[in-house]
Design brief:
This protein has 156 residues and is an alpha+beta fold. It contains 7 helices and 4 strands. The chain folds into 2 domains: 57 residues, Arc Repressor Mutant, subunit A (Orthogonal Bundle), CATH 1.10.10; 84 residues, Glutaredoxin, CATH 3.40.30. It binds FE2/S2 (inorganic) cluster.
């Protein structure tokens, strides 16, 4: 792993297991996801098994274990968004980009994940596309949105 990754590790005390989550967060911010190599390195630095780290990290829905696509879509499925139809939004996105939530398309163009709440509960369903929020999203709007995003990727 490169120097940047070593620099993150060195900010934390070796063997201090309470730092696991902040370390993982920082690595994810830098790499965009938690690679297997990152997990192994963190494990040996803190003296934790990789199984234990995966177990803890998967408990938090904010961690990703595969690289995001060029376009990353987070869909809120918190209570309020769920009541307002987020499930149909999730289904439609999966259908349009042809990949299940939590995965990245083979061409690396799109990835999608389900998150629990984005703090915009009165404006749901809410989705976030590469950092940009879309509110009151309807499944019927998604084919057009995905088409626009495809156009952006192709002309990038
Ligand atoms: S439940 Fe979706 S933004 Fe809060």
């Amino acid at each position: 792993m490169g120097t940047e990754f070593d620099l993150i590790l060195k900010k934390y005390k070796q063997g201090k297991r309470e730092d696991l989550i902040p370390m993982l967060q920082e690595i994810q911010e830098q790499l965009g996801y938690l690679s297997e190599e990152a997990i192994v390195n963190v494990g040996s630095y803190l003296g934790l098994s990789t199984t234990k780290i995966y177990g803890l990290a998967t408990f938090y829905d904010r961690f990703r274990f595969i690289p995001s696509g060029r376009i990353h879509i987070s869909v809120c499925n918190g209570t309020s968004c769920y009541i307002n139809g987020s499930q149909s939004v999730i289904n439609k996105i999966s259908e349009e980009i042809n990949v299940q939530p939590g995965l990245t398309t083979r061409d690396g163009n799109f990835s999608c994940e389900i998150v629990s709440c984005m703090g915009g509960c009165h404006n749901g369903p809410v989705i976030n596309v590469n950092g940009e929020y879309h509110t009151f999203v309807k499944a019927s709007q998604l084919p057009e949105l995905i088409k626009k995003l495809m156009y952006i990727i192709e002309n990038d």
